Amino acid sequence: MTSSAPEPEGARPVPPPQRRPGGRSARIRRQVLDAVLAELGEHGYDGLTVDSVAARSGVHRATVYRRWGDVGGLLADVLDAAGDDAWQPPDTGSLEGDLAALNREIQDALVAEPPIVAALIAASFRSEQADHAQRRLWEDRYARCEVIVRRAVERAELPLGTDARRLLIAATAPVYHQLVLLRTPPGPDLPGQAARTAALAASAGAFAVPPPAGDT
Amino acid sequence: MTSSAPEPEGARPVPPPQRRPGGRSARIRRQVLDAVLAELGEHGYDGLTVDSVAARSGVHRATVYRRWGDVGGLLADVLDAAGDDAWQPPDTGSLEGDLAALNREIQDALVAEPPIVAALIAASFRSEQADHAQRRLWEDRYARCEVIVRRAVERAELPLGTDARRLLIAATAPVYHQLVLLRTPPGPDLPGQAARTAALAASAGAFAVPPPAGDT
C-alpha cells in the first residue's frame, strides 16, 4: 500500500545520466526528490525546507522554488512519484495469504528506518498538497489491490459481488490504526491476524454487495 | 472512543463558581482548557499559542506558562481531562449493536464541527506530549469498551477466551482509517458495516485466544 514507498537512490547503483529516461528534467526531479526523502528521513517535516533540499540535491534553489513552489509541493511530488511504479500486490494463491503478505509489506513500510512513510503520513496532516497526494497514492494502491479479491472470486473462495474495497480496508485498517494512530509496537502476529479476520468475515458474507434495488 | 471528547463549556449553562469542584485551581484549569478547545476549533494547531489561550481564558499568561509550559502541555492536559469522565460504551443488548453504536459515536466525534477531535489527533503528530496523552486516552477508552465483549460472552454470543482488544480494534479501525487517514467522507453505513464485519469475524473465531502453551 505504502509499501512500494519511495527510497532514496543512494543505495542503488546510479546509471549514467544519459541513460536515465526523460533526460535532464527527469534527472533534476530525481535528484530533488531523493534529497526530500533524505531530509525527511533525517529531520522529519519540521526540518524540511526548500533551501535544505536544494542544497542537498545540488540543484539551484531558484529552480526548486520555480518548479515545486514550497515544501508542500515537494512532498506532493514525492508521493506522486511513489505511485508511478509497477507495484503489484502479492500473489500467494489464497485470499488470506495475499492479505497477510500485503499487511506485512504495510507494517514493514510503516516501521522502516528512516521513517519515510510515517513522516509522509504525518506531513499529510500539515500540508494540503501532501494530503491530496497521499490520498491519491492510497486510492491507487487500493485499486491495484482489488485483483486480490478478483482472484479469490475466480478461485471460488469468495462469492461474486464481494465489495473488494471494503474487504481491503477491513484487512489493512487494523495495521494502520495500531501503528499510525495508537502507535502500538509492531508485532509479528499483527499482519496475519488482521488478514485472517478479514478473510473469515468475507467467508461469512460481510462484504456481500446487496442486489440493486428492484431486483427480485 | 474519542466520542466523549471535550467540548467547550460555552454551550452549557455554567454553574456558579463556588459550586465547581476543586475550587480556584480547578476553575482556572477549566477556563484554560476551554480556551484551548475554542482556539483549536477555530484555528487548528497552527493557530494555537500559549498567549492566545491565556488571552481568551482571562487567566494571566504567567500562570498559564508556569502551569502548562507550552502548547504541548496544554494539549496533553485537554486530553487527560477528556479521559476524566464517566463515559461508558453503549449497551444495546447485542454485540453488533454495541459495536455499531460505538462506531457511530466515533464517526460523529471525528466529523464534528468545530473539528476538535480531528485537530487533537493531528496535533498528536506534532507534539510528543499530546501524542502520549492521546495514546493514554485511547488506551483508557479501549479498556472501558472491553465490557462490550464481556457482555457478549455472558450472553453466549461469543466464546470464552475472546481477545476483547483485538475485536474492538478490528471493529473500530475501519472508521478511523477511512475518516482520519484516507479522509473519505463519512457515510451512514460505515459504522454499522465495520461493526458487522467484526461481529461476523468474531463468530467465526477470529479473536479466539489460543490456549496457553503446555495445555493439552
TrEMBL record, chains A, B:
Signal peptide stretch: none
Keyword Nucleotidyltransferase: no
Domain annotation HTH tetR-type: ranges: 26-86
DNA-binding region: 49-68
Start-end of Low complexity biased regions: 1-12
Keyword Transcription: yes
Superkingdom, taxonomy of origin: Bacteria
PANTHER family tied to this protein: HTH-TYPE TRANSCRIPTIONAL REGULATOR RUTR, TETR-FAMILY TRANSCRIPTIONAL REGULATOR
Stated name of the protein: Transcriptional regulator, TetR family
